[in-house]
User: Fold this.
Amino acid sequence: MVESVDVAVIGAGVVGTAIAREIGRSNRSCLLIEARSDVGDATSKANTAILHTGFDAPVGSLESRLVRRGHVLLREYAEQTGIPIERTGAAVVAWTESQQAELPGLLSKALANHYDAAELISAETLYRREPYLAPGARGALAVPDESIICPWTTTLAYATDAAAAGVTLRLDTTVQGIGRDPDGTHLLDTSSGPVRARWLVNAAGLASAEINRMMGHDEFTITPRRGQLVVFDKFARRLVSSIILPIPTGTTKGVLVAPTIYGNLLVGPTAEDLPDPTDTATTPDGLQSLVAAGVAIVPELAGEEVTNSYAGLRAASEHRDYQVSCEAERHYVCVGGIRSTGLSASLALAEHVVELMTGAGYPVVTRAGAPAPARQPNLGEAFMRPAGDPAAVAADPEYGRIVCFCERVSRGEVRDALASTVPPRDLAGVARRTRATNGRCQGFYCAAEVATMLRSESPSR
Assistant:
């Protein structure tokens, strides 16, 4: 049988789920197609988890406009849903005379991007704020509104809202070909069966250029850019209070040192262009270079333990800007080349897509009675977790029965995740919904019990 919908969205990363949520809340039926077994399981799960202001985006670009708008929208949405955000601020640090000379230009760029809260600060002010930095810094550009955020909960919140609004989520499904009926309807050949869609939105991330080629276009190519990152133990969190950024170059933003919403300290990423869109392996050279770079910025990191490491792939194209276009005659929107700022711009990208569709003669308008955003479990280290809430434990003792002692995750939280609107299918999915197995022991203690719950309590098993 052929499934027929108004709009098919390909890709259930943070951008695709945001778009599906926006369309689902309208008068249009929507199908969200994802090749992997969970939402947010590719680029969206492995990044620096920063909510950007857009202060350093290319001036006049679509990225600049959408990151700026997305920053506002996501902050508002996070308040409604419980997505944890910490406004740590950032400091772009100059270590050499030539780098110091670039700071006024970065300030001018921030102002040109309509961000006027940035300011140049002296070395003395910088060290008062960040006393553990290595000696020798000459000054910095302070960006007070840069923030850290939970990328996992953001994608899950979008997907949950989309499902509540009536969007159908089809996981483990690849698009193998795209045809077209004489009436203009798209015919998608997928691994889960055929789909008919009046409109098609390509938000396929690393596969966006491939989907674009299926539609007969070759405006951009995607070269996977691997970013390896090192996660230091929670004891290292005290060493920085804000996001420490380097002076960017023409090819990379460089290695940063940043706190995470989960209470750790992050160093990275590398920037390695690869031919393989599945190569998320970390390498000894990459990790050693990151540790060395972190210690050069914050010397006391030499005495701290590394808890974990990971790598993510960014959908880098040959263009400096997002590759977003609408082909009205063929009822097709392409959302490609969305790099490291996709999380920050996600809600603005969704807003932009429906504006393009509406402008092309296909109105997408929020319907009366669309469900309100659903509250999400707050995974932030600085926020109350159920095991630490006496009222929650009294109401449900399962919240007092700890499964993961490193991250203080209770059986009640794992149970809730398994029964959620978009439940996990494996241990990694449970980790993204609860933080279980992500602590110092990396699941040595809790993985077996969590796996047992997954087998016995998951409704999909």
User: Anything to note?
Assistant: The mean pLDDT is 94. Residues 62-81 form the longest helix (20 residues). Residues 180 and 186 are 5 Å apart (CA to CA).
